[in-house]
C-alpha cells in the first residue's frame, strides 16, 4: 500500500493492473487466468447486481438457474455458436480421483471414472437453456419466457487481465422466448437500452448504443445490439451486448409452439449479458493517478469519517459528534463508515480511502470541535473545504448528486472530444495513433474492408450507432458508396 | 398440472418428487444429477439468500468470490479434506474442442489441449481459499478475516434427488481466519446459531443444534456444529453445518501470522455453509397432499387475488376494488399478485396457487362487490372465510404472522411427538421402524458402536445436542457407561 501507483501517462496498462490489486478489488489466483474478487471489489459488484436485478424485474424478468455443465452433444447442436466457443472450452472428462499408487499422499485422476460423454463448462448457456425450454413451451400461452440467470462462466482465454478478460467470470445472461420476430427484436433492443441506462445513470459512464457488424456478432446471433464506452486511454470497451437470435436456437433444439391460429412455428429468441468486465470499465473511466474514483451510486462507503486526536478524551468527544453525523447521513440513505481503527494513523487512512475511491472523506480534529466544523475532501476533484456542522448533511447529500453528475459529464466530455469524424484513410490512421478515441467514418458495408482496416490499423468497427444519420458518403478505405458513418476504435 | 399428487401416505418419496416438479420449483436437466431451478423455485431461494446475506453482514462478514477450479496440487494439500471429496470430483483435463475429422459437424476434445495439471471443479473451497489467505495474512492486524462466498459447487453423487442431493448445487460458504482457538470456536458456534435462527424464524422449521460425532464430521474439521430438522416422514435432514477447522488448513497452506507479542503462529479457521438443500427441507416440513405450503416470509407471492366475473364490466368493477386492496396491502409490505389471466378459469387458478403454496388467496366476485366482502382462503389450514373489505388489510396482515407461527408450531409439535427417549436396543429398533423420528438414547462414545447401530438399523447419530443434559446411563447398544443422550435417526 505504501508505494505510489504508476501514472497513467507513464504506463496505462501497468497503472490499471496496479490499481486493481492495490485498491483491494481483485487479484490473480493459483488457477491460470482465474481471479479472486476481493471483498471491496465484490461489494461494488454487488451494488451493480442489485440495481441490474431490480431493472430486470421491473421489465418483467424472473431469475432461474441452469446447470454449469453442457453435454457435448447439446453444445454442438447450434453449429455457429459451437464453432464460436469450441476453442476456449474447459472440458470435464472424469468424475473421480484416486490415491496415486506411485506417490503416497497424492491423488490422480481415476482412469476408470471416465465420462461416457464429455461435459463442457458453460462459456454461455444458450444450449442447455434452449434444450430445457423445449419442455416448457407448447403453446402461445407459455410465451413469452423472460428469464435471467446470475452465474459464473468459463472461457479459456490465453491472455487474461483482471476483470477485463478472465478465464472464469461472473455475469448475468438473459434468455427469452417469443411468439414473433418483432417481439424478440423489441426485447433485444429494450434490454440493450436497460444496459445503457444502467451504465450511464449508475456507473456514470456514457455509452453509444449500436449494432455490431456481422463479423463482430455473437456466435449464433442474427443481430447483436451493444453498448460501447470509451476509456481514458482512447480505447473502446464493449460494456454489454443484447442478441436477437432469430429462430436459430429454436431450430437447433426443436422448440416449437402452437400459435393462436393453431399452427406450429419455431419460437423467436434473445439473449443478453453483462459481466464483471463492467468493473474494468468503471475503473478505467473514472480513476486517476491517485487510485480509484467511484461514483456515489456504486461506492460501498459513500462517506468515510476519520478522527484526528491526540488523547482518548479528544477521541471520545469527536466520536460523540461523529455519531450524530452518521445518524443524520444514514437517515438520508447515505452509507457512511467511521474509520476509528487504532492500528493506522490518519495519513495512512487518508491514503487508503483515496486509493479506494471513497467519494467523500470527512476529517474531524480538536479544532473542528471548537469551531463546529468538519473538513470535507472530495475524491473526484481532490478539493477540500471546511463545512459548518449544521450544514454538513445538506452539503453531503447534494454532493452525492453533484459528484455522480460531474463524473458522467467529465467522461462525456472526454468522449466527445475524442470522437472524430474523418473522411480519408490518412486522417483515419493519424487520428487513431495520435488523438485516439472513436473515429466516425464511412464504411462500404463489406467484411473485406472491415478486415483490411483491422489488419492495417488494429481498429475494429465498434458499432453502427442506433442514432446514426443517413448521410451519403464514400468508404474511408475503399471509396465505395456508403449511407452512414460507423464508429471505429481500438478496443479492449 | 391437471393430475393430483401422489399422497404422502401412499409414497412419500414419490409425493416429494412430483411436488417439486408440479409446483414449478425444479426439474432434472440433460446433465446427469444436475437440476434446473425454475423461476418459482428460484424466487424462494432468492428470499432465503437475501435474509441470510443480511444476517451474515450484520455479524460482520463480507462477500467475496474465489475460482471455480482448484488445481489438483492444492486440492490434495489438506489430506483429510482431499480424501473426503476425492471420490466425487468433476475433473477438467482439457481446454479446447476441435472439429471431429470422422464426424462432420461434430466436435471432439482436442488431444493437444491437455492441461499440465488437472483442475478440480470445487466441491468446497477451503483449499483455494486458504491458498489465497496466505497472501492476505501477515500479522494480527489482518485478522480476523470474515468472508463469505455465494457459489455453485459440484459433488459427483451417484444417486441424486432434486434439491436434496444434486451433482451441482448452490450454496454459501463462509471461511474465516482468527488469532485464537477460542475466537474460531466462538465463530463456528455463532454461525451455527445464525443458521438455527434463520431456519426457525424464516423457514418456520424447528431445529436441534448439536455437534457431529467424529465419523459424521466434515472432512478436515476438528469439530462440526450442525442444525438438524425432522421431516414429515420421520427422517432427519441436516440443514446446515459450521466447522471449527483448528489449524489444519493453516498448516496445510502455511498460513502464519505474527501476534501482538511478535511471535509467529498458525491461524485458526472456520467454515460454514447452507445450500439449496434447504429447499428440500422447506418442502418436506410444511407441504401436504395438495401441494406446497409456504411460510409467508418465504413466499414469492404472499397473497394472490383471483377475480370471478362473467362480463368485461364485472371484471372492470372488480379490478377497481382489487387495485385498492393491492395498494393497501403493499403499503404494509405484503407482496400481492393479481391473477387476471384470461387464459385460465378461476378453478384452474385456485388449483395452481394451492399447488404452489401461496399463503393467502383472495377471490372476488359480483356478489362480493355488492356485499363489500372478499373470500379469503388460507393455504395452510385450507379454510375459507368471508371478510369485510374494510377489515381486509388488518386481517391479512395479522394472518401473515399467524400462519408463520402456526407452521412453526405444527412442525415443532410433530418433532416433539416424534422424539422418543429409549433405553433398550429392542425399543430403539421398534420406535425407529414404527413411530420413526428422533431417538434420544445413550451411546458409549465409540465409532464402533455407532457403525454397528448404523449397520443394523440404518440410523445414524444426527448430533450430540448442545443442550444435552449430563445424565449417567448405559449405551443402548453396548451397555457401556454414557454421560449424555445423543439423537439418532434415519436421515436424508
Ligand atoms: Zn486526449
Ligand atoms: Zn407419526
TrEMBL record, chains A, B:
Keyword ATP-binding among record annotations: yes
Alphabetic keyword roster: Aminoacyl-tRNA synthetase, ATP-binding, Cytoplasm, Ligase, Nucleotide-binding, Protein biosynthesis
Pfam families associated with the record: HGTP_anticodon, ProRS-C_1, tRNA-synt_2b
SMART domains noted in UniProt: ProRS-C_1
Gene3D superfamilies per the UniProt record, alphabetical: Anticodon-binding domain, Bira Bifunctional Protein, Domain 2, C-terminal domain of ProRS
E.C. designation(s): 6.1.1.15
Record's catalysed reaction(s): tRNA(Pro) + L-proline + ATP = L-prolyl-tRNA(Pro) + AMP + diphosphate
Residue stretches making up the Aminoacyl-transfer RNA synthetases class-II family profile domain: 27-295
Name of the top EC class for this enzyme: ligase
Compartment(s) where it occurs, according to its Swiss-Prot or TrEMBL record: Cytoplasm
GO molecular function: proline-tRNA ligase activity
Record InterPro entries: aa-tRNA-synt_IIb, aa-tRNA-synth_II, aa-tRNA-synth_II/BPL/LPL, Anticodon-bd, Anticodon-bd_dom_sf, Pro-tRNA-ligase_IIa_arc-type, Pro-tRNA_ligase_II_C, Pro-tRNA_synth_II
Transit peptide recorded as keyword: no
Task performed by this protein: Catalyzes the attachment of proline to tRNA(Pro) in a two-step reaction: proline is first activated by ATP to form Pro-AMP and then transferred to the acceptor end of tRNA(Pro).
Domain comment (free text): Consists of three domains: the N-terminal catalytic domain, the anticodon-binding domain and the C-terminal extension.
Family: Belongs to the class-II aminoacyl-tRNA synthetase family. ProS type 3 subfamily.
Classification via HAMAP family: Pro_tRNA_synth_type3 (MF_01571)
Quaternary structure (record): Homodimer.
Name this polypeptide is given: Proline--tRNA ligase
Lineage start: Bacteria, Pseudomonadati, Bacteroidota, Flavobacteriia, Flavobacteriales
Amino acid at each position: 500500500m505504501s508505494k505510489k501507483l504508476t501514472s497513467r501517462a507513464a504506463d496505462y496498462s501497468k497503472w490499471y493492473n496496479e490499481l486493481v490489486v492495490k485498491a483491494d478489488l481483485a487479484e490473480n489466483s493459483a488457477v491460470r487466468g482465474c481471479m479472486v474478487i476481493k471483498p471491496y471489489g465484490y461489494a461494488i459488484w454487488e451494488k451493480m447486481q442489485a440495481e441490474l436485478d431490480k431493472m430486470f424485474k421491473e421489465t418483467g424478468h424472473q431469475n432461474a438457474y441452469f446447470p454449469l455443465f453442457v453435454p457435448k452433444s447439446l453444445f454442438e447442436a447450434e453449429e455457429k455458436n459451437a464453432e464460436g466457443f469450441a476453442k476456449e472450452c474447459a472440458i470435464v472428462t472424469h468424475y473421480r480421483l484416486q490415491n496415486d499408487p506411485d506417490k503416497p499422499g497424492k491423488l490422480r485422476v481415476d482412469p476408470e471414472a471416465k465420462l461416457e460423454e464429455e461435459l463442457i463448462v458453460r462459456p454461455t448457456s444458450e444450449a442447455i437453456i434452449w434444450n430445457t425450454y423445449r419442455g416448457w413451451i407448447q403453446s402461445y400461452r407459455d410465451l413469452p419466457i423472460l428469464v435471467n440467470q446470475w452465474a459464473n462462466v468459463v472461457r479459456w482465454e490465453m491472455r487474461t487481465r483482471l476483470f477485463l478478460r478472465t478465464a472464469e467470470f461472473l455475469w448475468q445472461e438473459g434468455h427469452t422466448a417469443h411468439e414473433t420476430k418483432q417481439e424478440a427484436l423489441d426485447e433485444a433492443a429494450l434490454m440493450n437500452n436497460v444496459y445503457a441506462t444502467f451504465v450511464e445513470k449508475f456507473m456514470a459512464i456514457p455509452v453509444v448504443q449500436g449494432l455490431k457488424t456481422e463479423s463482430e456478432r455473437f456466435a449464433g446471433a442474427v443481430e447483436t445490439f451493444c453498448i460501447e464506452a470509451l476509456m481514458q486511454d482512447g480505447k473502446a470497451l464493449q460494456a454489454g451486448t443484447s442478441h436477437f437470435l432469430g429462430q436459430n436456437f429454436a431450430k437447433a433444439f426443436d422448440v416449437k409452439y402452437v400459435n393462436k391460429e393453431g399452427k406450429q412455428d419455431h419460437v423467436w429468441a434473445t439473449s443478453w449479458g453483462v459481466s464483471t468486465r463492467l468493473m474494468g470499465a468503471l475503473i478505467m473511466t473514472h480513476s486517476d493517478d491517485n487510485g480509484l474514483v467511484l461514483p456515489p451510486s456504486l461506492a460501498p462507503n459513500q462517506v468515510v469519517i476519520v478522527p484526528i486526536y491526540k488523547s482518548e478524551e479528544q477521541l471520545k468527544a469527536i466520536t460523540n459528534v461523529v455519531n450524530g453525523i452518521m445518524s443524520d447521513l444514514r437517515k438520508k440513505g447515505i452509507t457512511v463508515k467511521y474509520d476509528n481503527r487504532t492500528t493506522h494513523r490518519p495519513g495512512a487512512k487518508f491514503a487508503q480511502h483515496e486509493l479506494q475511491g471513497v467519494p467523500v472523506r470527512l476529517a474531524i480534529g480538536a479544532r473542528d470541535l471548537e469551531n463546529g466544523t468538519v473538513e470535507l475532501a472530495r475524491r473526484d476533484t481532490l478539493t477540500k473545504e471546511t463545512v459548518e456542522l449544521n450544514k454538513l448533511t445538506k452539503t453531503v447529500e447534494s454532493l452525492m448528486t453533484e459528484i455522480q453528475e460531474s463524473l458522467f459529464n467529465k467522461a462525456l466530455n472526454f468522449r466527445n472530444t475524442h470522437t472524430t469524424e474523418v473522411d480519408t484513410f490518412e486522417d483515419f490512421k493519424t487520428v487513431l495513433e495520435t488523438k485516439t478515441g472513436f473515429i466516425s467514418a464511412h464504411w462500404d458495408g463489406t467484411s473485406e474492408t472491415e478486415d483490411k482496416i483491422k489488419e492495417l490499423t488494429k481498429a475494429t468497427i465498434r458499432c453502427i450507432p442506433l442514432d446514426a444519420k443517413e448521410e451519403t458518403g464514400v468508404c474511408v478505405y475503399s471509396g465505395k458508396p456508403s449511407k452512414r458513418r460507423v464508429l471505429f476504435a481500438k478496443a479492449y
